[in-house]
Amino acid sequence: MKGFRLLFVTVCVGFAPLAQADDQMVEEGRKIAFDVKKGNCLSCHNIPGGQASGNISVPLVAMQMRFPDKEVLRQNVWNQPQFRPHAMMPPFGKHQILTEEEIDKIVEFLYTL
Fold it and tell me: What would be the CATH architecture of the domain defined by 20-110?
């Protein structure tokens, strides 16, 4: 039993930095999404925790349920017009508005909504 407890503690402690890194990535994604000079998602979307949110597009809620495949969500942020040609959302990745890393952070944030 003592060996099991040591293994359990080792495994849990081993995952702590990963959880902190994920939390940091989510927070950075939130900042990018809310930044008017970066993602500016609030100009069109209602997002929990955001102020002065827009109502031009769908509220960003239940994102894991709406996008069970996180890569599909990422592709929507990277180039929304490939899915909806008449969408007003800019192709953030395709037009290099955001970096690949910034898009990854936004997707991590969106997946918490």
Answer: Orthogonal Bundle (1.10)
